[in-house]
Design goal:
The complex is a heterotrimer of chains A (329), B (323) and C (282). With 329 residues, chain A is α/β, with parallel strands linked by helices. Chain A is 31% helix and 22% strand. In chain A, the strands form two sheets. In chain A, strands 6-7-8-3-9-10-12-11 form an eight-stranded mixed β-sheet, sandwiched between helices. Chain A is globular. Chain C has a single domain, classed as MetI-like fold (Orthogonal Bundle). Chain C is mostly helical. Chain C contains eleven helices and no strands. Classes of the chains: A alpha/beta (329), B alpha/beta (323), C mainly alpha (282). Chains in contact: A-B, A-C, B-C.
């Protein structure tokens, strides 16, 4: 399989200070790195899930791919085409659809559902034989009846709004879908419906998807591979079952364990991580995870690990990756 | 065991253009002294109405047609404004979902914590040291220095710790936690749960923990009340409710949690349909329109069927637990 | 859009304050449009025999110092007042709307530049600016409109800019950008409908202010040419003869009070109905 999307050493920076303070500060303090050297490939037809906590840069990653935030370094290429030096974003965005976190908030509040699902055609100047039929067809594909055509976003429940979001992401039959937290703001009883819908559509249209999520429970059911991010870097990437059963990076393991389960008998041992994710302008030296790492050794504070193949499969950025033995110990 | 907080057959209606919206119907919840009771439900189940009713902070268009709320034997629905102000923050306090909006952005942490102690005798220094001790207790590094900090200078996790410190400062008898971990990352969520458990042990307060997250409830609570569309549909010890749920809604809700499924499935479970219109709720069982077990009898109000000891479900078809 | 208007009108009609406001405005508009038909006398016809006549069956609101019928003059003056107010508010509003959206959604430097421009204009006292402009320009309605436009568009610009800024990073705007929507499409299709609410409220509340400015300028003698029937001119005449014949002033003030009440109440009702925070939620 070939990579539909590939990122090489992608860097995104944000201004850390504004105005006079920025002029007076040393250059390296004026900006913070939200993404620091991300390299990954998304293969045609696969679903890659990017997981991480707030501040990990996962949302920035999705936005960097379709040009909503500018790159400070590195390269993104989509379908063999390099997306740098002012590419034709209008054309790219026709083939790369994006879904945003807030199901209702990502819909223009004064437009009807009909206008919202037809919006992609209007933006790209595509004439339709019968606009109403097309809208009904797109909604039906997302599991909504024609009675929704004249509703406004605030009249929709989270799940219904998410379906409208799916319908319009698929309107122009894109090659790649970037879904930022597709289950955010949805009740548990609705999550399943939406994920089933996305899985079905993905299979029917042969879509490639990049899903950004912090919801670890859904990973197994939607993703082929997982990339775990911490402070704007990938710390581990690999096949979903492998990461869930044998995480090699201590952070991945803590993340997977920090997930309370609705089973009162399963009060298992877990690593409760110390402290919180550091701020982007206060990155620890060496391995950036070492101050919180339960298995850190002295040299972790001085040497920065790089992403290397792990013995359990996939790649991991850790000097002392966990193995099956250390996991059971 | 005596009750710290008791809600008896509470109904709350909102006046709307479409008529009376029945946000809560005959809800009863008992929180024993020193106990942790969870309320679990999805959006629209009436969680926020319940909290506002407990604090007597309901909006103007709300009415309480029936029911009683007693805090340590005192009926709060009959308490005067002055008495209510005394109770809030001192005898009953709340930790909200978003500490960024529940803390005052223009006052320092120390000032806000001093303000909570306004009824207390003692010097400013004594109050500050008490605040600092509590901040230290909830795991905030450099607690004395943090008294001068403003909410925006802290991270989300630290802000929630401050909010918990403020809620616990006056050693309330009842602490209401309204989705206190929902805005936090998973690794912080477990830290906060641990903290609440420890504090509850130390202060000996009762906690009413409200969440949509089944896992968190299972982890923290002794008893759980399951709410759907303004109605308590099931209640019991956490282990009984989660392992042997009696109400079809509870059963479905637990099935829906994808964390339960250890193998990849192509068809994730969900509950089809949507919430009923609460200005015109269906007769009989509130869950009937979405329930696959519904029969004719479900058009009549369901009884609270005792399943096993203190475990009941409001369903005609619930089976008595033999285990 | 038709459904939206329908519901807005429906909501307004359910609000007694709005109905009262719309009734007053309708009365003013109809009487201005039909001034020639309704007016019992020629507003410019002088009848020196009936100077300073008290209100009577012939002269409903009495006559002024030249024996002209005050009621007929006020009807004609209503045309001028509404014409000036509606024209000036529309022009100022349109300029403010466009500049405000540009400032809010455009690049940062443009925002800073436009903001500086707005604040400079707003820092000038209206009356001083009006006097200065009036001194430079010929006397007439055109001058009144220009003065009002210059002194008020910055206010619209400010309000629209703030609204736009709060929408700029909203997810639905990001979603539009991610779909490839152009700058113009985002501004006119997605930002405009959302800033119109607060904008209309401000405009409705500003209409009576503009009518007062026109009256004030005419009162100061820098508004409409002498002899033209205008609410301000009637007030000025009334003021001159307040000791002998107070009813000129009293009746001259009546339509101004009605217009101010009508438009202010309409503005308040619009604000209540358009502001999602004031609208009923569950």
């Amino acid at each position: 399989m070939t990579a539909l999307l590939s990122l090489r050493d992608v860097v995104v920076e944000f201004p850390a200070l504004r105005g006079l303070k920025a002029l007076l500060a040393p250059p390296e303090k004026r900006r913070v790195r939200a993404l620091d050297g991300i390299s990954l490939d998304v293969l045609a037809g696969e679903t890659l899930a990017v997981v991480g906590e707030s501040g990990s840069g996962k949302t920035t990653l999705a936005r960097a791919i379709n040009g909503l935030v500018p790159l400070a370094g590195g390269q993104v290429s989509f379908d063999g085409m390099a997306l740098d030096e002012s590419p034709d974003w209008h054309a790219v965005r026709r083939r790369v659809a994006m879904m945003f976190q807030d199901p209702v908030g990502s819909l223009s509040p004064r437009k009807t559902v009909r206008d919202l699902v037809l919006e992609p055609f209007a933006i790209h100047g595509i004439r339709l034989q019968n606009r109403r039929d097309k809208a009904v067809e797109l909604l039906a594909d997302a599991g909504l009846g024609p009675d929704f055509l004249h509703r406004y976003p605030h009249q929709l429940s989270g799940g219904q709004a998410r379906r409208v979001g799916v319908a319009r992401a698929l309107a122009l039959t894109p090659a790649l879908v970037l879904a930022d937290e597709p289950t955010a703001g949805l009740d548990v009883s609705v999550q399943g419906e939406i994920l089933n819908l996305m899985n079905r559509i993905k299979a029917e249209h042969g879509l490639t998807t990049l899903i950004i999520t912090h919801n670890l429970n859904i990973l197994r059911h939607i993703a082929d591979r997982i990339a775990v991010m911490y402070l704007g870097r990938i710390v581990e990437i690999g096949p979903v079952e492998r990461l869930l059963s044998d995480p090699a990076h201590p952070y991945t393991r803590a993340l997977m364990a920090a997930n309370p389960e609705p089973d009162p008998t399963a009060r298992r041992e877990r690593i409760v991580l110390k402290g919180e994710t550091p701020a982007l302008n206060a990155r620890p030296p060496g391995c950036e995870f070492h101050p919180r790492c339960p298995v850190a050794r002295p040299d972790c504070a001085s040497r920065a690990p790089v992403l290397e193949p792990a013995t359990t499969g996939g790649r991991v950025a850790c000097h002392y990756p966990l193995t099956k033995e250390t996991l059971s110990a | 065991m005596s009750e710290a907080l008791k809600v008896e057959d509470l109904s709350v209606h909102y006046d709307t253009r479409e008529g009376a919206l029945q946000a809560l119907r005959d809800v009863s919840i008992t929180v024993p002294e020193g106990g942790i009771v969870g309320v679990v439900g999805e959006s629209g189940c009436g969680k926020s109405t319940l909290i506002n009713a407990l604090l007597q902070l309901l909006p103007e268009n709300a009415t309480i047609p029936a029911g009683r709320i007693t805090l340590q034997g005192e009926d709060v629905t009959r308490a005067g404004t002055r008495r209510l102000r005394q109770m809030r923050g001192q005898e009953i306090s709340v930790v909200f979902q978003d500490p960024m909006t529940s803390l005052n952005p223009v006052l320092s942490i120390g000032r806000q914590m001093r303000d909570i102690q306004y009824r207390q005798q003692g010097s400013r220094a004594a109050k500050d040291s008490r605040s600092a001790a509590m901040l230290g207790r909830v795991g905030i590094p450099d607690p004395v220095g943090k008294l001068a900090a403003y909410p925006h200078e802290l991270s989300g996790g630290m802000r929630q710790r401050v909010a918990i410190a403020m809620a616990a400062l006056m050693r309330p008898r009842v602490l209401i936690a309204d989705e206190p971990t929902t805005a936090l990352d998973a690794t912080l969520e477990v830290q906060i749960i641990e903290l609440l458990k420890e504090l509850q042990q130390e202060i000996g307060c009762a906690i009413l923990f409200i969440s949509h997250h089944l896992g968190v409830i299972a982890e923290l609570c002794d008893r759980v009340v399951v709410m759907y569309a303004g109605v308590a549909v099931e209640e019991g010890p956490v282990a009984d409710v989660f392992l042997r749920p009696g109400h079809p809604y509870t059963i479905k809700l637990i099935e829906c949690d994808p964390g339960k499924l250890k193998e990849k499935v192509t068809d994730l479970p969900s509950i089809p349909g949507s919430l009923p219109d609460l200005t015109d709720p269906p007769a009989g069982c509130i869950f009937r329109p979405r329930c696959d077990r519904a029969t004719e009898i479900c058009a009549t109000p369901p009884p609270r069927k005792g399943l096993n000891g203190a475990h009941w479900a409001a369903c005609h078809h619930a089976k008595v637990d033999k285990a | 859009m038709s459904a939206f208007r329908h519901t807005l009108m429906g909501r307004l009609l359910a609000d007694p304050l709005a109905v009262f406001a719309m009734a007053i405005i309708a009365l003013l508009v109809v009487s201005a449009l039909l001034a020639d038909v309704i007016a019992p006398h020629d507003p410019s016809a002088m009848n020196l025999a009936d100077r300073f006549a008290s209100p009577s069956a012939t002269y409903w609101m009495g006559t002024d110092n030249l024996g002209r019928d005050t009621f007929s003059r006020l009807l004609q003056g209503g045309r001028i007042a509404l014409y000036v107010a509606l024209t000036a508010v529309s022009i100022a509003g349109l300029i403010g709307l466009i500049l405000g959206m540009l400032a809010g959604f455009g690049p940062r430097w443009l925002d800073n530049a436009l903001l500086f421009f707005f604040d400079t204009l707003r820092a000038y006292p209206t009356i001083i600016l009006a006097l200065a402009l009036a001194a430079l320009m010929p006397r007439g309605l055109g001058t009144v409109i220009i003065v009002v436009v210059i002194t008020s568009f910055a206010e619209y610009g400010r309000v629209v800019r703030t609204q736009t800024l709060s929408l700029k990073n909203a997810e639905f705007i990001l979603a539009e950008r991610a779909m490839g929507a152009s700058f113009a499409r985002i501004v006119f299709h997605h930002i405009l409908p959302n800033v119109l609410g607060p904008f209309f409220i401000l405009a409705a509340m500003n209409l009576p202010v503009v009518i007062t400015i026109e009256a004030g300028m005419s009162f100061l003698g820098i508004g409409v040419p002498p002899g033209t029937p205008s609410w301000g001119a009637t007030l000025k005449d009334g003021f001159d003869y307040i000791r002998t014949t107070p009813w000129i002033l009293l009746s001259g003030g009546l339509p101004l009070i009605l217009a101010t009440l009508g438009f202010t109440f309409l503005g308040e009702a619009l604000r209540d109905q358009l502001d999602p925070r004031l609208r009923k939620t569950r």
